[in-house]
């Protein structure tokens, strides 16, 4: 089952974006794409994940698994986000052992949603 | 397609729970169940939605639709939560017009996740 890493590309992280500069969300998306998605993960731009009070956000989802949303991400976190996404994709059920999760996933969780019933 | 209203029943809303009292999340769940779910909505208890820094949380999900998570909910919000869940369930795609959404949904969004690809 394909894991999608959703990246909010409209995020301004609560700051004005000077003319000619790209917003933090788009910068994060570009950093993730440039680094390359791990096996089984597709990186997808999303226009607003409605987590605007919590900096740049990303979400992980996959049919039959819990979905996760993380906030206060920056382009400097790209490598750890991709590592966490890879562990999620490689897991049987989307539940990655706590100790293996990137610290930014442990500390900056915004929410998780139980698996969809189909 | 069935809409699930997930309710975090382990939420302490950042407060200690005195012995013999039930926690705010369980109280919210009981208030929702007592009010009765609107048509097309199933209320489901969840053990932690990982939104612990943002008070009691609920999530709405349905196959093929955006999922939403809302925070800082209390049992006093039960009626408005159920009204919002009913509108979500009655919509074609889970997208309820902004002006129709309960104010607590407009102002206390934690995140939304794009529809799952199946």
UniProtKB/TrEMBL annotation, chains A, B:
It comes from the Bacteria. InterPro entries: DUF1636, Thioredoxin-like_sf. SUPFAM superfamilies: Thioredoxin-like. This is DUF1636 domain-containing protein. The lineage of its organism: Bacteria, Pseudomonadati, Pseudomonadota, Alphaproteobacteria, Rhodobacterales.
